[in-house]
C-alpha cells in the first residue's frame, strides 16, 4: 500500500497496475469530443468503465483544468485534447489499439496506446526542433509522410497555455 500525497488515502498498487492494463491513452482528440462520442468510437471492442479527459487548457486562468474539462470551458486557441479510456476487460483495451491512426474527425487522426506500455519507442522516434509555436500535429505528420508509416506525432506544449514549445517527436512504425 502507498499513501497519496494529495489526498491522504491508501492506494492498492496491484489494483492500480491491473487498472492500467485495461486503460488506453487516446491523443489528438478534437476539443469537441465528449464521453459519448469517445465511447461510441471504441464500443466495438468491449464495455467501457470510465473516460477521463486530460491536457485541457482552461479558458479562464482562475479555473482548474478539471473544472474546465467538466464544463467544457476550453481556451479558444486549443485545438486538441487527450483522454484515458478504461475498459472493463484487459483484452478490450488491447483490441482498441486497432484504432491507432484512425480518423475521429476531419484532420484528427488519433493516437491510441496502452497506458501501461513502456516499449522502446525511442529507437523509432525522431526529435523535431525549431517548430512554429502554433504548429498542429497534422502539419508535422504531413511533412514526414515520405519517410515511412507514422504511428504518432507529439508536439510538446506548455501546460498552462497549450502553445507549442517549438519541438516534438515523430514515432515511426519501424526503423528504416
TrEMBL record:
Organism: Molossus molossus (Pallas' mastiff bat)
GO annotation (BP), single: maturation of LSU-rRNA from tricistronic rRNA transcript (SSU-rRNA, 5.8S rRNA, LSU-rRNA)
Protein name: RNA binding motif protein 34
GO molecular function: rRNA binding
Principal location class: nucleus
Annotated keywords: Nucleus, RNA-binding
A Pfam family of this chain: RRM_1
Domain RRM: 22-117, 124-176
UniProt record similarity statement: Belongs to the RRM RBM34 family.
Subcellular localization: Nucleus, Nucleolus
Amino acid at each position: 500500500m502507498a499513501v497519496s500525497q494529495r489526498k491522504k488515502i491508501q492506494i492498492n498498487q496491484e489494483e492500480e497496475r491491473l487498472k492500467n492494463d485495461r486503460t488506453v491513452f487516446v491523443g489528438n482528440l478534437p476539443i469537441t469530443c465528449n464521453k459519448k462520442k469517445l465511447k461510441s468510437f471504441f464500443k466495438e471492442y468491449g464495455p467501457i468503465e470510465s473516460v477521463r479527459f486530460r491536457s485541457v487548457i482552461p479558458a479562464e486562468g482562475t479555473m482548474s483544468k478539471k473544472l474546465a474539462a467538466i464544463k467544457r470551458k476550453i481556451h479558444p486557441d486549443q485545438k486538441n485534447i487527450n483522454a484515458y479510456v478504461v475498459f472493463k476487460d484487459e483484452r478490450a483495451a488491447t483490441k482498441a489499439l486497432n484504432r491507432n491512426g484512425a480518423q475521429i474527425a476531419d484532420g484528427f487522426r488519433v493516437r491510441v496506446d496502452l497506458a501501461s506500455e513502456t516499449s522502446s519507442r525511442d529507437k523509432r522516434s525522431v526529435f523535431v526542433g525549431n517548430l512554429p509555436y502554433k504548429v498542429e500535429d497534422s502539419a508535422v505528420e504531413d511533412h514526414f509522410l515520405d519517410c515511412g508509416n507514422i504511428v504518432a506525432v507529439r508536439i510538446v506544449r506548455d501546460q498552462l497555455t497549450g502553445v507549442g514549445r517549438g519541438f516534438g517527436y515523430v514515432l515511426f512504425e519501424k526503423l528504416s
